[in-house]
Hints:
Blueprint: H1 3-11, E1 38-43, H2 53-65, E2 68-73, H3 76-89, E3 95-99, H4 102-108, H5 127-130, E4 134-135, E5 138-139, E6 142-143, E7 149-154, H6 155-161, H7 171-183, E8 187-190, H8 197-209, H9 220-234, H10 247-255, E9 259-265, H11 269-272, E10 279-282, E11 299-302, H12 312-323, H13 325-335, H14 342-351, H15 356-364, H16 377-393, H17 398-412
Parallel strand pairs: 1-2, 1-3, 8-9
Antiparallel strand pairs: 3-11, 4-5, 6-11, 7-9, 7-10
Amino acid sequence: MPISRKATASLLITTCLLAGCSSANDDAGDSGAAPTGDYTIWDPYPQFDDSSDWVKLLAQCGTDAGVTVKRTGYDTTDLTNKALLAAQQGNSPDVLIVDNPVVSTLADAGVLTTTDEFKADTAAVSPNLLAAGQIGGKTYGIPIGANTLALYYNNDVLDKAGVDPAAIKDWTGLTAALQKVKQSGKKGITFSAIGTEEGSFQFLPWFWGSGANLTQLDSPQGVAALTLWTDWLKKGLAPNSVLNNTQTTSWQEFATGDFAFSENGTWQLANAKKTGFEYGIIPIPSQAGGVAPAPTGGEFVTAPIQDDTARYAVTEKLVNCLTNADNAFTTDTTLSYIAATEAVQQKQVTENPELTVWVDAVKAAKGRTSDDLGTKYPKISQPLWTGFQAALSGSASPQDALTTAQTTAAAATK
C-alpha cells in the first residue's frame, strides 16, 4: 500500500495507545492431533471484503491447512495498537500482516516470533527487502511484496522542452532537464515534502542517493541532498506547494498535465493511465549516477508469539501459502506491489513489461528500519522532516537545518 495511506501514523507509535480488540483465538485442540479449529489472521486491508480475491485466498489457505481462518482487516494504526494490546492480554492472532516499519516496533515489544521459530523459509526473498524485518540478526517475518518510488514523466512536456528522459542518469542531468522544461513554459517536478513520515519517505531517495546515512543527518552528503531540493524551489523548478503536498496532492498536480515529473509510487499506475497524456517512468537517479536507493513500502507476514507453541505448525502452513510464488503473484498484482522474490518479479515483468522500471527500483531499494535501525528510525525521521521543512521554507539553511536535526535525533536515540 502507499505510504500515504498506511505507514505514516504507525511509524510514530512509540507508546501503546491501547484500544479494545477482538476476542481470543479458539484453541487448536490436542497438539498431537490433526489441526482443527479457528486460526485468526489480522491484516491492514480493510478495503477488501469477503467477496474479494484476497479474503478468498485467506480462506483457501486455511482449508488447505485443515483449519478455518477468521480474518479481520484493520486500518494500520488500529492494527498496530490492537496487536500490542492483544499480546499484552495473551490473545494475539496467529498471523499478523503489518506495514514493514512496524515489524521492528512489534519485535522490540516482544510480540513476534522469529522465522526460525515458526520455520518459515526465507531463502528466496530478496535480502534488501527482508532486511526491513531484521533486528539484531533475527528475522521476524516475510515481505508479501514491496512498493517504492520512481519518477513519472509527461512525455509531451519533455518533447516540447527537448528532453530525452532516458538520458537522465544523475542529479546534474535531472536539474538540467527541469531548467529546459521551465524555459519551455511548463513546470518542472512535483513531490511531497510535507512535515510527516510521508515527506521523509519522499526525501530518502535523494538523501540515500547522495551517499548519506541516517545515523548522520548533517553529513556533507545529506546537506547536498537537501540543497538539491531547496535549489529547485529557489529556481522555480519545483513549486512551493511541495511543503504541504501529500503524495496524493502531488499526484493531482502532475495529473493536470503542467508538470514534467512527479516523484510517486507504484500505487499510481492505475491513475497514470487515466491522465489523458502519454507518460513514462524512470528510476530516481543518485547524485553520482545510477539508481538511487528508494525506501520500501509494503507489508510483512508475521507470526505473533503464542502460549500454545503447537499452533506454529499450522501458522507455518498459512504463511507459506500466502507467500508462495503463485499466490504472491496474484496478491502483488492486486496490491500493485513488486514481488519479494526474483522468480515472481520475472513473472510480473513477463506479464507486464511496464513493471521493469519498478523491479529495478525495488532491487535498489532499502527498508527505512534497515541497517539495524529498528525502532530508532521514527526518532530520526521526525527531526529529518522538521529539518527539510525548515530549509524549504527558508527559515534555516540546509546545513543549519540538518545540524539541528542531527542533534535532536542523536539525543532521542541514545
